[in-house]
């Protein structure tokens, strides 16, 4: 039997509708309009599309957004100055620096300069530390999207073996940190997993992945996960987004794996749409957190 597809588009639109109604409620009670500031440096076409989609998504849920476009030759100091202004702007609640930044900019210093209360990507060391300690302020967007899609399809993680391929600070590591917690706000059944992280130096990858109840691929290599790497009936989440010619594909060989896995996310239409939905959720949360300290 072919794998059941987990529909990220549908799940994301449910979450966006929930956020829209919470924003409406929040504003009715006198809360400020949540606002996201997006900083885009240079003219990378993919980044321009991502930022446009994020702005459009904000408008759809009743939030404000502003795009700060800077030329490719912008210095680290100039960017730090802009972030300082945004950090101090009482009408900006979330700040997003679109990655990757052009070569020559000090990405770490720049990300570290975003005020932790406005760090809707959850990259700031303080927010990473809080997550590791099991008391997250913001949940990182793509990993949170992965857990949301699993939870909304009722796929219990408690006691399960989850294998995560990839150890980036954006996906692999924060996802593993979330899954080992006792509860990240969705109930203990959607946490409490036994987690293995694999990376570019891992050996005998297939032997490890075949022990996974849930296999998450976040590597950026088309076709990396083949059918022989998947235990029959396992849940396979494909975070990868790779352009192959005109097509977008994930890290999973979709045709092969869909005949072995029990559940599978497609690319496109899987985890991708959830990332923006969770960014919206974090922007509303950032606005609410700031209202407490205003
Ligand atoms: P990255 O390049 O920062 O990290 C890739 C990771 O893969 C590294 O940790 C590396 O050690 C590991 N790796 C490399 N070869 C491997 C192998 N053979 N086996 C196991 N691990 C291996 O990438 P990233 O930023 O984490 O992104 C990963 C993929 O996810 C990319 O395709 C990216 O486009 C996609 N992505 C999607 C979303 C989304 O919204 N769906 C968000 C972020 C990233």
Describe the fold and architecture.
The protein has 294 residues and is α/β, with parallel strands linked by helices. It folds into 2 domains: 31-115, Rossmann fold; 140-271, 3-Layer(aba) Sandwich (Rossmann fold), CATH 3.40.50. The protein is built from 10 helices and 11 strands. The protein has helices spanning 8-28, 45-60, 76-88, 107-112, 125-132, 141-152, 172-179, 205-209, 254-257, 272-293; strands at 4-5, 35-41, 64-70, 94-97, 161-165, 194-198, 214-217, 235-238, 242-244, 247-249, 263-264. Strands 1-11-8-7-5-6 form a 6-stranded parallel β-sheet. The longest helix has 22 residues, at 272-293. The chain starts with a strand and ends with a helix. The structure holds nicotinamide-adenine-dinucleotide. Nicotinamide-adenine-dinucleotide binds next to α10.
